[in-house]
C-alpha cells in the first residue's frame, strides 16, 4: 500500500453513488468514470482509472456477501480520487506473490502498479473504504 488518504476538498466536482453490484456492473461503472473524465477534461486518465476502478468493484462482487458498496469519484487539483466503500469487515491484503494458475490475487498488485497512491481505511462501524488517487502528469 502506498500513500496516505487526503482530505476531500468540496470545491471540486464529485460523483457519489450507492449500489448493489453484480457481474455486469463493472462495465457500467467504467462508462460513468469515462464520462466524468471527459467532462472534467481528463480523458487521458481514462484507461488507468477504468482499470483501477474495475479492480475495486470486482473485489466487491467477489468478496462482499451482500455486494453493496458506495462509489465516490472526486476531481482534485492534481488529479482524481476514487473511493469504494463496503460494509464487509475483511480488509483486503496484497499477496506476496500469486501462483500463475491462481484465479485471483493480482488486483491490488495491479492497482499498486497503476496509480500514484492507494490505501484502505477501516470504517468505524465495520467495513472499509479502498481508495486510490491518480495524478495528472
From TrEMBL:
Classification via SUPFAM superfamilies: ATPase domain of HSP90 chaperone/DNA topoisomerase II/histidine kinase
Domain Histidine kinase/HSP90-like ATPase as annotated: residue spans: 25-131
Coiled-coil annotated residue ranges, if any: none
GO molecular function, one term: protein serine/threonine kinase activity
A Pfam family: HATPase_c_2
Keyword terms of this UniProt record: Kinase, Serine/threonine-protein kinase, Transferase
Domain of life of the organism encoding this protein: Bacteria
Record's protein name: Histidine kinase/HSP90-like ATPase domain-containing protein
Organism: Streptomyces diastatochromogenes
The organism's taxonomic lineage, starting at the top: Bacteria, Bacillati, Actinomycetota, Actinomycetes, Kitasatosporales
Amino acid at each position: 500500500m502506498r500513500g496516505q488518504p487526503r482530505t476531500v476538498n468540496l470545491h471540486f466536482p464529485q460523483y457519489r453513488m450507492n449500489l448493489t453490484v453484480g457481474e455486469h456492473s463493472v462495465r457500467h461503472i467504467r462508462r460513468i468514470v469515462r464520462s466524468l473524465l471527459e467532462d472534467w477534461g481528463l480523458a487521458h486518465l481514462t484507461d488507468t482509472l477504468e482499470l483501477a476502478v474495475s479492480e475495486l468493484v470486482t473485489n466487491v462482487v467477489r468478496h462482499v456477501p451482500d455486494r453493496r458498496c458506495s462509489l465516490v469519484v472526486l476531481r482534485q487539483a492534481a488529479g482524481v480520487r476514487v473511493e469504494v466503500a463496503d460494509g464487509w469487515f475483511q480488509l483486503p491484503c496484497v499477496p506476496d506473490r500469486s501462483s500463475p494458475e491462481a484465479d485471483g490475487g493480482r488486483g491490488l498488485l495491479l492497482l499498486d502498479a497503476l496509480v500514484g497512491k492507494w490505501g484502505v481505511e477501516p470504517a468505524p462501524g465495520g467495513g472499509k473504504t479502498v481508495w486510490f488517487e491518480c495524478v495528472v502528469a
